[in-house]
Amino acid sequence: MLELRGIYKSYEAQPLLQNISFWVGTGETVCLLGPSGSGKSTLLRMIAGLESADAGAIRWDEADLAATPPYLRDFGLVFQDYALFPHLDVLDNVAFGLKMKNWKSADVKRRAAEVLELVNLQGFESRQVTGLSGGEQQRVALARALAPRPRLLMFDEPLGALDRALREDLLNELRGILHRTQIPALYVTHDQAEAFAIADRVLLLHDGRIVQEGTPAGLWSKPGSVWAARFLGLGNMMEGRIVAGQKVETKAGLFSVPCGHPHQVGEKVHLLARPWPEENETNQMQGRVADVAFQQDRFKVTLDNGAYFYLKDGPKIGQVLQIKVKLECLP
What we know:
CATH superfamily of the largest domain: P-loop containing nucleotide triphosphate hydrolases
Number of strands: 19
Largest sheet: 6 strands, mixed
CATH architecture of the largest domain: 3-Layer(aba) Sandwich
Radius of gyration: 24 Å
Oligomer: single chain
Number of helices: 8
CATH topology of the largest domain: Rossmann fold
Strand content: 25-35%
């Protein structure tokens, strides 16, 4: 099991990572999700042994890895830009790590064939990697990382260079491969949909700290903070003021919002309005339709007050709507 304890890292005298602690269990895929510049890639480099922490410990099964060089950690790393050897064919790229470990030639060929089949690249052995598509190159990179049977796989924005359709296809295949091999994985991305699709557990990284963690479903249902709700794109955020009991006054109107947090009259609060109409709710928002865009099986309808909702039927521009909404009070 991988475990990080109290990791600190500064860059140009400014704190980059602060008191980072988490673990990755056997067969588990954990995703580090956060905006660009939040320190995600730096964390991967430290775990891989390519950078050192200012303070804290990185352990594998309770053994401190500080003195273990990268090539002895038995961790696989997959990058966004593939990092393949352009002068080698597919087979030699996949076999590279095995040869560095002095595997016998017959074992190298057998293992390379196994992982190429796992990533659906049978018959590609003699192809030059420079002639492959982006998705095929990333499959080669994944096969190369899998070949030595690593103790841990790490992914640094691995699908960022691919188009949407290809990214979704490869993401589904990657999730299946991780489940079948049961290799623990640490996956870094800034894309919420990507993180939720592949992770068993998500760690939200903000300003160098892990501000929240949980399952994708758990984070979706209870974001836990205003920043998390905004970053995850969970809906419409509104500032309001407690006027009495559970009554909250906002620019969009007066709402009744049950809240488990203690508040005083006059206190400012933040409300999250989910973008899907809820017929059983009593709160409703009103506005004039400013924009309508079809997205998959719904229409994204934006009102003149900036609020947006996903509706089954597309209204006309200028039409006035009243939409029943679910409201949540965020700490």
